[in-house]
Amino acid sequence: MSVILSIFKRELKGYIQSPLAYAVISVIMALAGYFFSAALFSSRIAEMTSLFMNLAVILIFAAPVLTMKMIAGEEQDGTMEFLLTSPVTIPQLVLGKYLASLALFAVIIIMTFIFPGILLTISSPDRGAIAASYLGLMLLTASYLAIGIMCSSFTNSQIIASISGFGILLLFWMVGWLSGNISGPLGQFAKALSISEHYGDFLRGIIDTTHLVFFLSIIIISLLISMLGVAKRTWS
Amino acid sequence: MIELSNVTKNYGSKTALKGISLFVKRGEIIGLLGPNGAGKSTTMRIIAGYMPPTSGTIRVAGYDVVKQPVAVKRLIGYLPENPPLYKDMTVKDFISYSAELKGFKGKENSFRVNKVMEAVGISDVKNRLISHISRGYRQRVGLAQALVGEPEVLILDEPTVGLDPQQIIEIRQLIKNLSGKRTIILSSHILPEVSCLCHRVAIINKGRLIAEDTPENLSNALMGHQEISLQIKGPDEDVLHTLQEVPGVQTVSVNSKGKDISEFRATSEKGRDIREDIFFAMASRGFAILEMKSSKMSLEEIFLELTTEEDGMPASFKEASENVSNFKHI
Fold it and tell me: What are phi and psi of A85, to 5 degrees?
């Protein structure tokens, strides 16, 4: 546990000291602010569905950028050998890094509390729906980051890690659209895999165990594959 | 302390190690010597637990490297061939991080970090980013990282590479000071370094351990016959006869005849030191020895001898390996 904490602290410090994290946070907040006010002024309805939808899309690009370095970067700098010869297990390594990325995004999510704050002062939005949306957003972000780390674990190139991250996340996002065009079991399957479908229910204020299980499965499977990816580096 | 038995390693279809067996005692410094690509780094990486062997077992202090990796890694300090560098960290932060990963927290951590930075001489750059320090400092940062937990076993892959002569002397002294307390495996391509630092030398070539002994024994064993060149004052015929009669002398040849002083070359029977006998024989006849040189093979020559032949079986190797194996049990 203390090893995980050490890795966590080091990674978080790495984020705090790198300009990349600030750039990504600024872009996210600027876009979120724009989407929030645009939706509010055009519809004049005190709700945040469109902001949450847009945030989910922005994060498809933001998450892999901040996780691409996690494992691919260690290999690039030659520090993987150092880590793997320290008394650290691969699960500790992956979890420490994953938790650091979660912490960074927790900060971003907390920063977005300003938007429901504004709504609450000027109107009376559906608090339950907003709370459910935030739960959905947290699960969504946690899944994105797990997938981002997974992509980082299979390559030595940070660029390839982030591009493949975008690809996988976009695919998971868009695969639900198939279900509108394809009927039968294949369409159902596509719907079941779609992040946007599962996430959409949270925005409507629905917290269903199916969705919880879906996101938790993505997180666990991606992290397990990441551990495998790190282990695989030393097998060849 | 460290025991490798029949360790092999394949990278895809390429075989890097073809069955290495090695035993290192507690407190011993052993040097791995071999040309580039011989398998030195691979051997060290496997012992450090960075990658598993294809077959064979490695034990460190009784722990199996593959089955109990964390227990082994706790005992080991490892300096990889390319020193690990978090370019965005300061020197002190990085050493502190590596100490933390080894389980040192709080006061204990900062105490050890300061101590090791002092020992390898990087205290003056401790607050600088690793990306901003020179190659020599980076190498020492890597060394500090390996030493920080005061591990029982040190694995140092080319510890003095990239250092200037003054630093090399310092680091060698540092390693020497650890001798007896720590078990050290180091690799080097600088032969004098290995012969001055190590109790034992293991020569690796093409993934095989081809010789293993103390530096002195290796050169003795490989030499076999002692070859002595002499410069003696006296009538050359008489000197020649006297030389031939010295016990243990096998052949004598006259190298150059002078008016008064002649040069000779004598070879001994295998494994016999004839220098004293020659001295007394000449003294008793009143011939003055002006110069006597024993041409001993340096580690450099042995290294070349062992590693440059085709098929890894040099001419003198068979004979030498018999001698080496005899010496092993002394």
Answer: -105, 0
Name every chain B residue with its beta carbon within 8 A of the beta carbon of A235. Answer: 51-52
Rg (CA), chain B: 25
User: Within 13 A of B25's CA, how many CA atoms are on the CB side?
Assistant: 10
Among A98-102, A116-120, B134-138, the range scoring the smallest mean pLDDT is B134-138
Quote the CA–CA distance of B171 and A231 in Å, as a whole number. Answer: 34
End-to-end CA distance of chain B: 19
B131 touches chain A (CB under 8 A): no
Give the one of A81, A86, A236 whose C-beta lies nearest to B98's C-beta. A86
Bridge-based pairing state of the strands B2-11 and B208-213: unpaired
Contact A87/B12, CB-based, under 8 Å? no
Does the pTM surpass 0.90? The reply is: no
Domain holding A29, by residue range, is: 2-235
Question: Which residues pair with residue B232 across a beta bridge?
Answer: B262, B289
Nearest CA of chain B to the CA of A83: how many Å?
A: 9
Does B103 contact A2 at a Cβ distance shorter than 8 Å? yes
* Residue B173 pLDDT exceeds 70: yes
Q: How far apart are CA B66 and CA B59, in angstroms?
A: 9
* Token pair of B184 as six digits: 């050290």
Least confident of A21-30, A107-116, B269-278, B318-327: B318-327
Average pLDDT for chain A = 91
- State the average pLDDT for chain B: 82
Strands B261-268 and B227-233: antiparallel
Whether this model's ipTM surpasses 0.95 comes out as no
**For residue B262, what is the enclosing H or E element?**
strand B261-268
- Provide the number of structural domains found in chain A: 1
Please indicate whether, in this complex, the C-beta atoms of B52 and A2 are within 8 angstroms of each other.
no
